[in-house]
Design a protein that fits this description.
This protein is mainly alpha-helical. Helices cover 83% and strands 7% of the residues. A two-stranded antiparallel ribbon has the order 1-2. The chain is elongated. Pfam families: CybS (PF05328).
């Protein structure tokens, strides 16, 4: 039992952070940024007794590629926040039905579905596999479907009973 406790404690402190840094080179670069910045990115060289500093472009490119990972991390956090906010939003829309709640549901559902479909298309229609034109067409099709869906839901909310009342009517059947 003590061995299991020790293993769990060590996994939580050391194992998880090592797995994360090994799996994600951006996290590994961030953890060593302070101590290796001068070693990896700025390389001192002396010529005629004058010290010059040249930039290691390969290491700089690795760091700049990690900046796009920050954008994806932020987007993933927003996606998870929206998914989590749907948990109280849906019941509250049924408890307090209104046009504002119908429009909020329409936006939330469409955005949630858009991000999910976009992820699928980007993952499976890679430019290396299907070509750049078909990959861009797939993403454009997702944007078109999302815009059409949002417009249709807005039209339904405006000209008919709304999303919540339509679901309530279906339940009555």
């Amino acid at each position: 039992m003590a061995a299991m406790m020790s293993l769990c404690r060590n996994f939580g402190k050391v194992g998880l952070s090592n797995r994360m840094t090994i799996g994600n080179p951006c996290l590994a670069a961030l953890s060593n940024r302070n101590k290796t910045f001068l070693e990896n990115r700025i390389v001192p060289s002396s010529q005629n007794g004058v010290k010059k500093f040249t930039v290691n472009h390969k290491a700089l490119a690795e760091t700049s590629s990690c900046k796009s990972a920050d954008d994806h991390t932020r987007l993933w956090t927003i996606e998870r926040s929206l998914a989590l906010s749907l948990v109280p939003l849906v019941p509250s829309a049924f408890m307090f039905p209104s046009a504002a709640m119908d429009y909020l549901l329409a936006i939330s559902f469409t955005l949630h579905a858009h991000w999910g479909l976009e992820t699928i298309v980007v993952d499976y229609l890679r430019p290396k596999v299907v070509g750049p034109a078909l990959a861009k067409l797939g993403v454009a099709l997702v944007y078109g479907i999302s815009a059409f869906t949002l417009g249709g839901l807005f039209y339904f909310n405006y000209s008919d009973v709304g999303i919540v009342n339509a679901i309530k009517m279906l339940w009555k059947l």
